[in-house]
Specification:
By secondary structure, this protein is an alpha/beta fold. The protein has a single domain, classed as Alpha-Beta Barrel (TIM Barrel). An 8-stranded parallel beta sheet has the order 1-2-3-4-5-6-7-8. Strand 6, helix 6 and strand 7 form a beta-alpha-beta unit. The longest helix has 18 residues. The relative contact order is 0.16. The mean pLDDT is about 95.
């Protein structure tokens, strides 16, 4: 069994939701039995919640992507107050994706830090793990993270330095490994500390580059990992699945 620990299958901007059953059937045919659909703002998180409650294979997260927050503190407070009605949902397994992203021009550090602190407070209050999106921002991330106490969490789509990987390992993090690993020159964490993810519809793995990603392609990421780590496919599947089950309690 395999798990896609991070995808956006619920997002109608990318997926034709009338074909969800086909996508889930393809997922199961490839040995992927569970997926987690990731919220990127309050409304998107509600859509993730609805999706998970209508598909037995799916769980969901409540998130607010750093690039989607415009700095309106009053609106953020209202959004988070409204979110209380879904945060007790039985299929909610984490907070995320949340974090800091300084990769593209136009970002506002103060806005992103404020949002991250608010979202980490929710994770701490509810003792939920977090799916972190951190891009070119670890120097600011670590001090903020250390102000909170949350369960074991995941650095989603990690592609940063070996130095930050080492710190992440020391801090107890797990690392989201996706299609990026199959075609990019990035550092790879130890097998015992990874979970698989597609980030579908993004980051399609080899040999399917150029088409939309989907959860069934977790199998191809697992095949890459078996080759890279020089382990049997079954061993890789067992380790990564148990990691995801332990972190997200699914």
């Amino acid at each position: 069994m395999l798990i896609d620990s991070h995808c956006h299958l619920h997002d109608k901007q990318f997926f034709d939701l009338s074909k969800t059953d086909e996508v889930l059937a393809h997922m199961r045919e490839n040995g992927v039995d569970k997926c987690i659909v990731i919220g990127t703002d309050p409304l998107d998180s509600e859509a993730a919640c609805d999706f998970a409650n209508h598909h037995a294979e799916a769980w969901w997260t409540f998130g607010y992507h750093p690039n989607d927050y415009d700095g309106d503190k009053a609106k953020l407070a209202a959004d988070l107050e409204r979110a209380k009605k879904v945060l007790d949902d039985k299929r909610l397994v984490a907070i995320g994706e949340i974090g800091l992203d300084y990769h593209f021009d136009g970002y506002n550090k103060d806005f992103q830090r404020h949002l991250l602190e608010n979202m980490l407070q929710i994770a701490q209050d509810r003792q939920l793990p977090v799916s972190f999106h951190i891009r070119d921002a670890f120097e600011d991330f670590w001090p903020i993270y250390h102000n909170f106490h949350i369960p074991t969490s995941v650095l989603h789509s990690f592609s940063d330095s070996k130095k930050n990987m080492k710190q992440g390992l020391e801090e107890g993090f797990y690392f989201g490994v996706n299609g990026l690993a199959t075609f990019a020159d990035i550092a790879h964490p130890p097998l015992e500390r990874i979970v698989f993810e597609t980030d579908a519809p993004f980051l399609t793995p080899k040999p399917f580059r150029g088409i939309m990603n989907k959860p069934g392609y977790i199998r191809n990421i697992a095949e890459w990992a078996a080759d890279y780590y020089q382990q049997n496919f079954e061993v890789v599947a067992k380790i990564t699945t148990e990691n995801a089950e332990k972190i997200f309690k699914i």
